[in-house]
Design goal:
This protein has 255 residues and is α+β, with helices and mostly antiparallel strands. It has helices spanning 8-31, 38-51, 118-137, 144-157, 249-252, and strands at residues 55-56, 68-72, 75-77, 91-100, 103-112, 162-163, 169-171, 178-182, 198-201, 204-206, 212-214, 221-223, 229-231, 234-237, 244-245.
């Protein structure tokens, strides 16, 4: 598989896109509290994105009806914001993409609402750390398959967690979804990582089994066993050593 690295001009635009997305994520995190509805959060995020000079990447993508994906408790990803009211003990996955001057960045974090269980806290920690481990493998000279192998090895060392196998990270840039597909488990993929590739790395980890189902809305992905799930994601530029992280907030988020 041949994947075109971005030019220096394209990378500069993506850096600006990432700065805007980072600010949006931080503000949305502060806005989310007990008693907020998912629709309120989505509307708030939309306003922030527009005011930043960007556009919401998700709104209208394959007919998706919202600016954010808000996935609560057993929802893994792609939750459509509705009138659900957040309550103490919930987990909410917040996934947002922005498009600035024609280039997308994509990032996500999962937040506990009020007091959450010890199991939920550990799930957040493991998933966020899995993202960090993935980034350590995201360097020029490695392969795409090395990323998933690193995630799986780490998550397995932490206990019996389910690594979602039906969803993956991806390339990102001029298009919201580009090659390569980046699995979060060990699978042979010899596609080389080269300088200037831009990738969205996103471990999705379940408290129970890895298997998932899709709701009747054709978007919301849930754990098949009804257990909680967590999701952390950032957009990076591949370099010779550590990748350049374009959206810091998922890594800085205090789990």
């Amino acid at each position: 598989m041949t994947i075109r690295p971005k030019t220096s001009e394209e990378l500069d635009i993506m850096r600006e896109s990432g700065k805007r997305l980072n600010a949006v994520l931080k503000a949305v995190n502060d806005f989310i509290t007990v008693g907020k509805s998912l629709q309120e959060i989505d509307a708030y995020a939309y306003d922030l994105i527009i005011k930043s000079g960007a556009k919401p990447s998700f709104l209208g993508y394959l007919d998706y009806p919202a600016s954010t994906c808000l996935s609560v408790n057993d929802a893994v990803v792609h939750g459509i914001p509705d009138d659900y009211i957040l309550k103490e003990g919930d987990l909410i996955g917040v996934d947002i993409g922005v498009c600035y001057e024609g280039y997308h960045t994509d990032a996500a974090f999962t937040k506990g609402i009020g007091a959450i269980s010890k199991e939920a806290k550990k799930l957040l920690q493991v998933t966020q750390e899995a993202l960090g481990i993935a980034l350590e493998a995201t360097i020029a000279g490695n392969t795409v398959g090395d990323i998933g192998s690193a995630v799986e090895a780490y998550v397995k060392s932490q206990g019996k967690y389910g690594i979602v196998r039906d969803l993956s990270g991806h390339g990102v840039g001029k298009n919201l979804q580009e090659s390569p597909e980046i699995l979060n488990y060990a699978a042979k993929n010899p596609t080389p990582l080269v300088n200037g590739m831009t990738l969205a790395i996103e471990p999705m980890i379940n408290l129970g089994d890895w298997r998932v189902v899709v709701d009747d809305d054709d978007w919301t992905v849930r754990t098949r066993d009804g257990m909680m799930s967590a999701h952390f994601e950032t957009t990076v530029i591949v370099q010779d050593n550590d990748p350049e992280v374009l959206v810091d907030f998922p890594l800085d988020f205090p789990c």
